[in-house]
Amino acid sequence: YILQLTENDQSFLGYCEQTAYGGGWLVFQYRYDGSVDFYRNWTEYRNGFGSVDGEFWLGLEHLHRMTSTRKHELLVELKDFEGNYKCARYDEFEIDSEVKLYALMKLGSYKGSADDSLTRHKGMNFTTKDRDNDTWNGGNCAQYYHGGWWYWSNRKSNLNGMYRNSYDEKNMVWDHFKDINKGLAYSRMMIRET
To answer: Whole-model pTM above 0.90?
Structure first.
């Protein structure tokens, strides 16, 4: 779909999920085969990368502009390499502005089957390999965990980590899915206006 937030905004291409959980979801992160490297810089995470017909990140600026003007919910879908599916759903989701480092400003109540590995990240700034906005004094979490995310001095999840079927803290992980540091095979994050 071609999306345009207001008549003054530039349009952009978005992938809308119209069947899962009642449809109407805009996908902003999608990973399923490791074909796109998510170890990216601030500008790439701000503007987005990949392609909506493959793996992609829609862009923090799009997320901010959508979630700051209207209330949205968040749905996270996950699968491991054995094909087990779980989801996490939050009844509110808002990303702050670039000036506020695209912080995970609002994250509502959790429900789902994946257990909650995101609430601990609420209020945290987005960190990339070239922009250290986390609270870890010993280094840059995005460099350490190999992907941009809303880190504090650690993480409970990082769906932008390395795509590997192994145990490694740098992997694409959701700590409560199964085992801490066990890489996931599939991740899809999407929002819907409420």
So the answer is: yes
